[in-house]
Specification:
- 0% of the residues lie in helices and 44% in strands.
- The chain is built from no helices and eight strands.
- The radius of gyration is 17 Å and the shape is flat.
Length: 108
């Protein structure tokens, strides 16, 4: 570990892991996709403690951290409907496309 080395790279918002059980390239493997972004209010402020729930999923909801950041694990590719509930606020449903360049959500 060299503390004097600075590495600059783009922020990674999508992570896809592919699993293959055989060396045969023609066999489709399993895959999972994780996404992450930031939830902001109408004025651009970060929304900490917001709950995000993928509709049609039995998974627990994710919460944004103090910087408004969230991470959703093992989501399906394509259109993804997410219910976002800010603390003390009204639930809103947003549609995200996976994969995408950004998964940031602005509540209006």
């Amino acid at each position: 570990l060299d503390l004097d080395v600075i590495v600059r790279s783009p922020l990674v918002l999508t992570r896809t892991i592919r699993y293959r059980r055989t060396a045969d390239e023609t066999v489709e493997g399993d895959s999972t996709t994780d996404i992450g972004g930031v939830v902001r209010g109408k004025a651009g402020e970060l929304v900490a403690g917001a709950s995000l729930l993928v509709e049609g999923s039995a998974r627990e909801s994710a919460l944004t951290n103090h910087l408004g950041q969230y991470r959703l694990s093992a989501v399906a590719r394509g259109a993804l409907r997410v219910r976002v509930t800010p603390p003390g606020g009204k639930a809103r449903t947003v549609t995200l496309s996976v994969p995408a360049a950004s998964y940031d959500i602005i509540l209006e």
